[in-house]
Amino acid sequence: MTTASIPVLTKKDFQTDQEVRWCPGCGDYAILSAVQSVFPELGIPREKFVVISGIGCSSRFPYYMNTFGFHTIHGRAPAVATGVKIAHPELEVWVATGDGDSLAIGGNHTIHMLRRNVGIKVLMFNNKIYGLTKGQYSPTSEFGKKTKSTPYGTADRPFNPLGLAIGADTGFVARSVDVFQGHLKDTLKKAAAHKGSAYVEILQNCNIFNDGAWFNLTEKEARSEHVVQLDHGKPLIYGKNRDKGIRLNGMELEVVHLGNGNGLTEKDLLVHDEKHPNPAYAFLLAQMEEKPGFPTPIGVLRSWDRDRYEDVMAKQIQDVIAKRGPGDLAKLLHAGDTWEVR
Amino acid sequence: MICDIQRGGPSTGLPTKTEQADLLQAMFSRNSEAPIPILAPSTPGDCFWVAVEACRIALKYMVPVIILSDGYLANGAEPWRIPTVDEIPGIQVKFATDPNGFHPYSRNPETLARPWAIPGTPGLEHRVGGIEKQDVTGNINYEPLNHEKMVRLRAAKVEAVGQDIPDVVPVGDPDGDLLIVAWGSTYGAITAGMKPMRAKGHRIGHVHLRHLNPLPRNLGEVLGRYRQVLVPEMNMGQLLMLLRAKYLVDAQGYNKIQGQPFKQVEIEAKIEEILG
Question: Does A270 have pLDDT greater than 70?
Answer without folding.
Answer: yes
